[in-house]
Each structure stands twice: as structure tokens, then as C-alpha cells.
Design brief:
With about 325 residues, the chain is an alpha/beta fold. It contains 15 helices and eight strands. Helix 7 runs parallel beside helix 10, helix 7 (about 175-195) crosses helix 13 (about 275-290) and helix 13 (about 275-290) crosses helix 14 (about 295-305). The model has no long low-confidence stretch (mean pLDDT about 95).
Length: about 325
């Protein structure tokens, strides 16, 4: 199975490295000339994945048309750009493995719903889970959810991507795998705020638990399976991104917790903190559906410039309730 990867950032490059295991041919599409040059001439991605040697069997291109002969495409473009990128590519019936985590602004559609609109003939899969790109590219042990309704395609993709240090767990629940990855980015910002504001480990643990309750409420309302949300692509990814500055979303929250402004923090990044773009869409979708998501509301307030102390006061002054209500 010849793999193409759409997106030359850290995560796209790490997945290209996974797919190139054993010298398999992989074609990586990137927007940046310097990424294409670095991958093709030095077998590195010095812009987004510095210090990690890449397989010589990974080739990079800026021409989306060159991906037309691939047997499957890993879509790793940021969630807000997936529609635009897929619209430029004659996908046809080529399977799309969606690796972006987010909800499209305006439409409030999951990435899979966007892909189905743009490429209705393409079989879809979702790859999600607790993954830091540098660790994956370096071959450190990693486990992910690979969701696909077509059992045969799921098995072929799993066999192609799995390796000694990259373990795939199958699922038929695309919605659950997507929602876990999207919502955890917003919650990771909140956990970064807890760290930046010096609120302590008790507060972080409570926030992870209550944030997971929000993820579950939203996921079930959108048709996800509860078991998926308790797995790698939900709780697993949440724990990872809520506990390390290697997470771009956690780092954004860290700065907010220290009193810095969101605009300045986001302007200083060459990589995307997806949670900042997902948060307002998630809030709107939750309000439309009548789903209570106070942590999500708090993250939006912080991104809009409300002082940290004020946001915390609002959260802590909410009426007491039953935990499982």
C-alpha cells in the first residue's frame, strides 16, 4: 500500500516516518519550500521536527497532484484547512485517513464530515490517540486508535501502519475518535492555565476529570460510543496533552495562566494550537445542543481576554451538583 501524507508539519512528518518503516515508499506533501528541500536533500524536517533523522524513502513535494497515484492518504493538514486542501485534490475513491483534530469553524462539522462533503466517494478512517510527534518519529512506544467502519480496510491500514513501537487498536467509531481528539485540545489549554496560574496538582486532576465529563456529554450527543471516549483517542489523549509542555495547547494555556494575551501567544507560533480555533466552535455547538460545558466556556473567556482570576472565580462559584448529573 503506497502511502501519501498531506501536511509537512511535525505530526505529518512523524507519520511519514511511521509509514516509511522498512524502506517503504512514502510521499509527503508540504506547503513550505524549505520543508521539501530539507526532506529531499538532508532527510530531515529542520523547520518542524528538528533533530530527527528521517528515512531516505520519504520524498517530499509541493504538488498535490503527485499524490494521485497513492493507495491511501493520511490527511494531517490543520482542521481548518482540510476542506481547502481536499478540494484541490482529485481524491476519487482513495481512502482518507484523517489525522487532524478539530471542528470546522462556521459549519461546526467534524473533519470526517467535511471530508465526506468534499470527497463523498472516498472511504474514511480516523487515526487518533496520545501522540507527541517527536516521540513517534524517534520510534518510542506509542498506541493509537484507528477507526474505520470498513473492517477489511481497517485491517489493511492497521497492518500497513503498525510496527514494533507503533501499535494500532481498531474501532468502528469514527465520531468518537474524532471528538476525543478535538475536545481534548480545548481542555489541554485549561490545564495549561492551571499550571501557569500556580493552582496546584489537585486542581489539574479535578479539571481533567470534569473536562472528561464534558467530552463525554458532547460525544454522546453527537453519536459517539462511550467506550471510545474512555480509550486512547479520548481519555488517553486527554491525559497526555493535559500534562506536558510538549503539547502546543498546554503551552498556550500556560502562557494565559501567566497573564499573557492570547493574540501575542498565538502570533509567536509557527505551529498550530488547534484548541484555540476549536474552542469557540465547540462552545457554539454545545450551546446549540443545550450541553453544559463550563470548562469550555472558561477557555473561551480566557482566549477573549477575561482575566484568569475572574474566570476561576466564575468556575468555583458554580452551584453544587451531583457528580454524575
Amino acid at each position: 500500500m503506497r502511502i501519501g501524507v498531506i501536511g509537512g508539519g511535525a505530526w505529518g512528518t512523524a507519520l511519514a516516518q511511521v509509514a516509511a518503516r522498512g524502506g517503504e515508499d512514502v510521499l509527503l506533501w508540504a506547503r513550505e519550500d524549505e520543508v521539501v528541500e530539507s526532506v529531499n536533500t538532508r532527510h530531515r524536517n529542520d523547520l518542524f521536527l528538528f533533530g530527527v533523522p528521517l528515512s531516505p524513502s520519504i520524498r517530499a513535494t509541493r504538488a498535490l497532484s503527485q499524490l494521485s497515484d497513492r493507495d491511501a492518504l493520511l490527511v494531517v493538514a490543520p482542521a481548518q484547512h482540510v476542506r481547502g486542501v481536499l478540494s484541490q485534490l482529485p481524491v476519487g475513491t482513495t481512502p482518507l485517513v484523517l489525522c487532524a483534530k478539530g471542528i470546522e469553524a462556521g459549519t461546526k462539522l467534524l473533519v470526517g464530515e467535511v471530508a465526506h462533503q468534499v470527497a463523498p466517494g472516498a472511504p474514511l478512517a480516523v487515526l487518533s490517540g496520545p501522540t507527541f510527534a517527536h516521540e513517534v518519529a524517534a520510534g518510542k512506544p506509542t498506541a493509537v486508535t484507528l477507526a474505520c467502519e470498513d473492517e477489511g480496510l481497517r485491517a489493511r491500514l492497521a497492518e500497513r501502519l503498525a510496527g514494533p513501537a507503533f501499535r494500532t487498536y481498531g474501532s468502528a467509531d469514527l465520531v468518537g475518535a474524532e471528538i476525543g481528539g478535538a475536545v481534548k485540545n480545548v481542555l489541554a489549554i485549561a490545564c495549561g492555565v492551571v499550571e501557569g496560574a500556580g493552582l496546584g496538582l489537585n486542581a489539574r486532576a479535578a479539571l481533567i476529570a470534569r473536562g472528561f465529563a464534558e467530552m463525554t456529554r458532547f460525544g454522546l450527543a453527537r453519536g459517539a460510543q462511550a467506550e471510545t471516549l474512555t480509550g486512547l483517542s479520548g481519555l488517553g489523549d486527554l491525559v497526555l496533552t493535559c500534562s506536558s509542555t510538549n503539547s502546543r495547547n498546554f503551552s498556550l494555556g500556560l502562557g494565559l495562566g501567566q497573564g499573557k494575551q492570547a493574540a501575542a501567544l498565538l502570533a509567536d507560533r509557527k505551529t498550530v494550537a488547534e484548541g484555540a480555533f476549536t474552542a469557540p466552535v465547540l462552545r457554539e455547538a454545545a450551546r446549540d445542543a443545550g450541553i453544559d460545558m463550563p470548562v469550555t466556556e472558561a477557555v473561551n473567556a480566557l482566549l477573549e481576554g477575561v482575566p484568569v482570576a475572574q474566570v476561576i472565580e466564575v468556575l468555583l462559584s458554580r452551584p453544587l451538583r451531583e457528580e454524575m448529573a
